[in-house]
Predict the structure.
Amino acid sequence: MKVIYLVPGSGGSFYCQNCLRDLALIKALRVQGVDAISLPLYLPATSDPEVTSPAPTPVFYGAIRIYLEQLYPWLKRFPQSMLAWLDSPFLLKWAAKRAGSTRARGLEDMTISMLRGESGQQASELDTLVQWLEKEGKPDIVHLSNGLLLGLARQLKQRLNCVVVCSLQDEDQWIDAQSPHGAAATWRLMSERALDANGFIAPSRYYARLMEDRLKLKSDRIEVIPIGIDPDPDPPAPLLFNPPVLGYLSRMCESLGLGILVDAFIRLKQHPRLHDLKLKAMGGFTPDDRPFLNRLKQRLSELNLAHDVEFSLAYEPSQRRAWLRQLSVLSVPIPRGEAFGAFQIEALAAGIPLVQPRVGAFPEVIETTGGGLLYDPDRPQALDEALVKLLTHPDRARQLASAGRHAVREQYTVQRMSRQVEEVYRRMLSRAQH
């Protein structure tokens, strides 16, 4: 079975859960004997030789070039050889670090054009991609990393005679951040283009139900396969409370709840048993997030608390594992929740308990693993109360951490995820052949 996985690159400046999921899945599929490789779109994704093509590949949908061509359609009249320099690795890495490269608002026209596929401004890019795949050997499966790539599905299926599978994860966060008109148009077009895919994979029951509604899909078209990770080979974290350490692992930005956690930290410092509490945040950030982080740091400095807070820019796997072992509790209080929250199983695998809002897929993970506490995000002080329950009761925290670590090693491994994905591939291939 030959699988091509189309992965939009994030530029490598922050903790990207989709990127981590895709990389881990491709590696595990290859271990199982599946001929699976990734092809990055827009920006560099990974240079890992274990998941990329051994043959040199062109840059598909180079972010700078397609953005300029969207703004100035007359550029498409120039020979592509004259614009090829815009796809140089140096320029693409530079673009990935610029403000706005991961911002939804302002990219409505580009998003809609991409979903139009063969009738969008990037039709020639789609043709280049398909021609390359035809030349390199047609795949049995093309796996789209997210639903915003559904504009590619029709041409891929028709010209390559392959099955198209699409993962779904947190598209709603990107689309709903657009202008109201752009978001409505994007959801409408995604729903139309969803008909071109053979099937979908969602990481949670919550997100499967959400996307069934948003994309008007029948429930039997979405398979629920939770994200998996490699179990931490080290012993569980020591879970020390002298001093207690509160952790945050995600992109360090306002929309993912870092400000909410900092507010809770400031209040908890007034608790008689938590005066020595520390806060550690990890996950990287984009240039758009820098003003927010500067405001947080300024506020902490004014309260004379800056020495108790650490913002770490490193977030590679080995660095995350070592960093997690310093924590007592992890909380990422995203107000609207997420499709899954891979940071939850990373923390639990290390033996760190969770405190999460009762929204999105967070209840699924915590109730399945028994690895943490849920709180009502609409009730004032609920986050503080839940954190106090664990930060001042080490035995309770260790009990939850132990249960969560055991459950992750049983139910949320990358091996289990990849086996389930391969089963989906085979079922969809069988259906397509009959």
About this structure: Residues 414-432 form the longest helix (19 residues).
